[in-house]
Design brief:
Layout: E1 2-6, H1 16-26, E2 30-37, E3 48-53, H2 60-77, E4 82-86, H3 88-93, H4 95-101, E5 106-110, H5 119-130, E6 134-137, E7 152-153, E8 175-180, H6 186-197, E9 202-207, H7 215-222, E10 228-232, H8 239-245, E11 248-250, H9 258-262, H10 266-274, E12 278-280, H11 285-290, E13 294-296, H12 305-312, H13 316-346
Parallel strand pairs: 1-2, 1-4, 2-3, 4-5, 5-6, 6-7, 8-9, 8-11, 9-10, 11-12, 12-13
């Protein structure tokens, strides 16, 4: 058996690729990983890596077309037993060859809301999803905008281990709010910086590379206080200690789009693993799943009094119990996903052709 794994970014920025390649390695399945080399990285994988050239001198649309052309050529020339298509856009770009040659022999993994409201996009998406063998989503809220079909949920983490030794320690001297990850959502960051600047009960520390140049770090520096600071990019191995060092995790990404309303951020899993409550935006799946252990901030928030009172009144014992129960549920759902993939790659070709 031979499988193709189609990514749409470098492996470094597509951690879900490893979810699939680990399973393929486990069952000794031969596979090709086909990705566009957007960042000119020299990457490796246990399978055969096919790196599609990404021309920095061309615009995104031109590179999309080049990627689709090259990948389509590979899919036509090879006779893969199964194709894993990771994220929606490559599924749309390659819909013709997927439906015509690999009908019922491909899986689509949907990680984000993209252009799902556009009629042409939605029509193609409906067709390519309908003829897929398996459809995977990373958030239950994606069902709100996707066609009414069966989906398997795969949370965006490998294996969470419920750590009974982690406890919740309330710090009030001052309370440290941490944004841990790629720093985006500029207006939301600015709003919290303005609130924290006026309230010495809080710190706001930002850890990670900035998506939009130095806008956020410049604004943080202009606040003129050591309680607000950007620390820049960190190594993956440092993340756990960073999360442990803060008191509340920042996930106020707004709710202006279906992307932020429906997507599950890695912050949810960091929160539940390390027992850290969250700052979220109202009317989002993040706020809903974190329940009583998320605090919503929006444009109407004028001060941090309610946040302070909410935090100091958290019942740590109840919070840990709730988060551990959720982790068990997430792990069970991921095991169901893994079993779905195992049945694909562990069976004979005739089982799903």
């Amino acid at each position: 058996m031979k499988v193709a794994v189609l990514g749409f970014n470098n492996i470094k920025y597509s951690p879900y690729i490893k979810t699939y390649t680990d399973l393929l390695d486990k069952y000794a399945i031969e596979y090709d990983v086909i990705i566009p080399n957007r960042n000119q990285f020299n990457e490796t994988t246990n399978g055969n890596l096919i790196s599609i050239r990404w021309d920095k001198n061309k615009n995104k649309l031109q590179n999309f077309i080049s990627y689709a052309k090259e990948t389509k050529k590979i899919l036509k020339s090879e006779d893969y037993d199964f194709v894993f298509v990771l994220t929606t856009l490559p599924a749309i770009l390659l819909s013709q060859v997927l439906v015509s040659k690999y009908k019922r022999r491909y899986l689509i993994d949907i990680r984000d809301y993209t252009y799902d409201k556009m009629p042409i996009f939605k029509n193609i998406e409906s067709t390519v999803l309908k003829h897929a063998h398996t459809r995977v989503i990373s958030s239950p809220a994606f069902r709100d905008f996707l066609p009414d079909l069966e989906y398997v949920l795969c949370h965006n983490f490998s294996h969470m281990i419920v750590n009974k030794d982690l406890s919740f320690h309330q710090h009030v001297d001052p309370i440290k709010i941490g944004y841990v990850g790629s720093i985006a959502y500029v207006e939301e960051c600015k709003r919290l910086i303005d609130l924290v600047k006026k309230d010495d009960r809080f710190c706001f520390y930002l850890y990670g590379n900035e998506v939009h140049g130095s806008i956020v770090s410049d604004y943080a520096e202009s606040a003129g206080t050591e309680r607000i600071k950007c620390f820049g990019e960190y190594e993956p191995s440092e993340k756990s200690q960073i999360v442990i060092s803060v008191d509340i995790l920042f996930n106020d990404y707004g709710n202006a789009s279906d992307l932020v309303r429906c997507a599950l951020s890695n912050k949810l899993y960091d929160s539940f693993t390390f027992k850290k409550p969250l700052i979220t935006s109202p009317n989002t799946i993040m706020s809903k799943l974190a329940g009583d252990y998320s605090f919503d901030i929006d444009v109407q928030t004028k001060n941090l009094d309610e946040l302070y009172n909410w935090y100091i009144n958290i019942n740590g014992k109840k919070m840990i119990s709730f988060m551990n129960q959720c982790l068990v549920q997430f792990t069970t759902e991921n095991l169901y996903f893994e079993d779905a993939v195992r049945r694909i790659i562990g069976g004979k070709t005739k089982d799903f052709r």
